[in-house]
TrEMBL record, chain A:
UniProt name for this protein: FAD-dependent oxidoreductase domain-containing protein 1
Organism: Magallana gigas (Pacific oyster)
GO biological process, one term: mitochondrial respiratory chain complex I assembly
InterPro entries reported in the protein's UniProt record: FAD-dep_OxRdtase (IPR006076), FAD/NAD-bd_sf (IPR036188)
A GO cellular component annotation in the UniProt record: mitochondrion
Keywords: Oxidoreductase
Alphabetical list of SUPFAM superfamilies matching this protein: FAD/NAD(P)-binding domain
Transmembrane segments: none
Oxidoreductase is among the record's keywords: yes
TrEMBL record, chain B:
Composition bias type Polar residues, residue spans: 235-253
Location of region: Disordered: 224-253
This protein's name: ATP synthase subunit s, mitochondrial
Source lineage: Eukaryota, Metazoa, Spiralia, Lophotrochozoa, Mollusca
Amino acid sequence: MAAFVTKWKGNEKIRPGAGKARKMGKFFKESISKMFSLKEEIPRSTDLVIVGGGLVGSAVAFFVAHKQTNREREIMVIERDPMYTTASSSLSAGGIRHQFSVTENVQMSMFTTKFLRNIKFFLGLIDQPPPDVQFNHQGYLFLATPEKAEKLEELVKMQKYLGAEVEMFSAEMLKQRFPWLNIDGIEAGSLGLNGEGWFDPHSLLAALKQRNIGLGVRYIDAEVIGFTKKLSAPETIGNQYVLASVISRDTDGDMFETNCHQVVNCAGPWAGQIGELAGMGTETGALSIPLPVVPRKRFIYAYHCHNGPGISTPLTVDITGTYFRREGLGGMYICGASPESEEEEPSIENLDVDYEFFNEKIWPRLAHRIPAFENIKLKSAWAGYYDYNVWDQNLIIGPHPVITNFLLANGMSGHGLQQSICVGNAISEMILNADTYTVDLSRFNFDRIIRREKILEDFIV
Amino acid sequence: MGDLMFEPEYNRHMPDDGKTPFVNLNKMLNVVEADFDKESLKQFMQRKIDVNDIAEQRVDAKTKEKIGKDLAAAYVVVKSGGRIQFAGMDRWIEKKGSHIPLPNHNIPNLKLQVADLTGSSIRYEGLAFLEGTSIKMLILRDCQYIDDFCLSRLYKISNTLEFLDISGCTLVTDNGLAALCKLRNLKGLRINDLPNAGNKALIAAYLLDENPELNVLGVDLPLDHDKEMPETSPEESGQYSDSSTNSSNKPPT
């Protein structure tokens, strides 16, 4: 037996992964404490480790579990915030749109819409009512100044070519359709007629998690604190290595090692930290480049208006970048905006809300564009983090060139909700060695960061 | 765009190490290895029905080009068990046994005006027949597969649609009714028996706000709806997360 099992030479406090022996005394101590504790044991080995159990992580787990045969891969999702209190997935405004300037972004959101339309097939449980994500179908409305109207028209043509149901409207047509709109300074707008709108992200997350658990995915309440590495093959190219195991710490403070075959980074705003633990940004060459994803705080304010825009109101994005949408049927609305420059970015230390930002930047612009909003009552507000890609605010997806079994699915910079399903599918196609990709996201791999190339998206909200 | 992924039995990805000669056999076995309890079999059969319906309710582009959009739409409706009326004719045209009494060549100026799909199994994909038609009256009574997404898709005939009946479509919720705001020329709407649309009266009132010509049947309209919350009023339920809420009337300039 000693020939098969290596002696554990790691930190004494970490329970070692499969195939590594520890001293007899320690083993007996563990067995006895296991008898008296109620918590579920973190496995000593698994096939696929997904760091982060939000929408992206759960989508990856779902598609791999859904497509694979006979549970051939054991999937483990490690989530340190099981109640999703600070997770971007629950704090999102919930919007989904097909109006993007990058073609893959359009395709990704369209895929998500198609998924939600068929949610009964994917996530429905037998003889249960289908999961309801409260999809509002009113679409998005982007307003354009005279300078930008021509570009907007070209982009609408591109989106329609890809199958999105979007139309251009002149300012007069907009005024007729939406009498509450002040078209001062507006030349045209683009409106999503079908498939766009907003929904409840938490319902989707709960449905994904429930289906995943039914498919045999393990959700572990722990935080990833490190990885161990090993060379991927006797003859390695350059300094390539693989992540051999993941070390996680559970809520009691105990540390566990789990051997793994592949790791997917779905840690959202904190993906940069996970990348650093895996070795990105440490050594030389391609490894010296850190994962350029940081948390960026964004606010959402909820207010009530007595005579506000009616039921056909789309999620409207003003020329200033301020957006608003209806919330429910009782005259409530929510709004928000991204800060105009890097200097104005709020501190990410906590999720406290800055009401001055609403009073000074958002409300005046909203009231100018929608005169009915001159009389509103602010009811509540909350903050969440964007998983912000500081390089070009677009998705980073695919295996790392040096850490060959480390897959990235990060940096969606505010579009995570819309792209999560498609990203999950794309990662599952990479893991399961698919013949063709449903949406070809090879442009978005990490190589572009190394080559200092940017893919820029015009419609950032 | 990758419709294959909706077919579980054809889209299983096997790890290809090049050594196993029985890859296809495993694929077949995978189908057989499905759980053999009553619920799984029911789900498996339902999936077969879904796929079959979607295939049946489709019209390919070549046929559409040959016989024209209105006639192609009429074919879909009649084939699915519904009945139609063309503009200028008084009688219903419907399937007799398995014979479809419609011409199979293009007739110019033939306009589909009424489509009655009561009790049919029309799907979201099947509603593609609406594109390019000028249907004035659409009856989707007791259609078990019509849901919110289908109602959103009706925007295609918003220019001409004047009457819509969606009574008895159990999958429709409040959000689906709200999506009917896209039917800007609608004059009549019947919404009886929608058990999953709890606030249909309130939504009907909102639809009337935007479209005063609309006549809504099957619901008791609130006499004086005041944009109050369905359960509690905003004053009562104001949960302030921070004490400094702004309640002045004018925004700072």
